């Protein structure tokens, strides 16, 4: 193989590599290309996603406020229950003392 044949073979190999690269590039862009109608749909989907995220944020905020209100109400109810139980305990103790006093008066 002389010098001219080596140069011609190298040129053919480089040209084939160039053509294959160009074809691969064309295929990738052909299948990955986004059409205008799809672009509008993508914009619509992005807008819906944005609105859904905002709604989720509002819902989370509402739920946190509601949870705080319910927790506060629960604490108030528990405090009222403790006060009522203490009052009941005192009333029972007083009733027991009165029974004991009456029994002592009846015996004595």
UniProtKB/TrEMBL annotation:
GO terms for molecular function: glutamate synthase (NADPH) activity. It comes from the Bacteria. Keywords: Coiled coil, Membrane, Oxidoreductase, Transmembrane, Transmembrane helix. Residues 35-108 form a coiled coil. The chain crosses the membrane at residues 6-28. Its EC number is 1.4.1.13. This is Glutamate synthase [NADPH] large chain. It comes from Candidatus Rhodobacter oscarellae.
């Amino acid at each position: 193989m002389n010098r001219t044949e080596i140069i011609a073979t190298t040129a053919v190999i480089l040209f084939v590599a160039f053509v294959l690269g160009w074809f691969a590039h064309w295929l990738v862009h052909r299948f990955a290309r986004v059409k205008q109608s799809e672009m509008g749909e993508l914009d619509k989907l992005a807008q819906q996603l944005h609105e859904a995220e905002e709604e989720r944020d509002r819902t989370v905020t509402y739920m946190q406020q509601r949870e705080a209100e319910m927790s506060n109400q629960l604490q108030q109810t528990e405090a009222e229950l403790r006060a009522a139980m203490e009052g009941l305990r005192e009333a029972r103790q007083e009733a027991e003392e009165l029974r004991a006093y009456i029994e002592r008066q009846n015996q004595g």
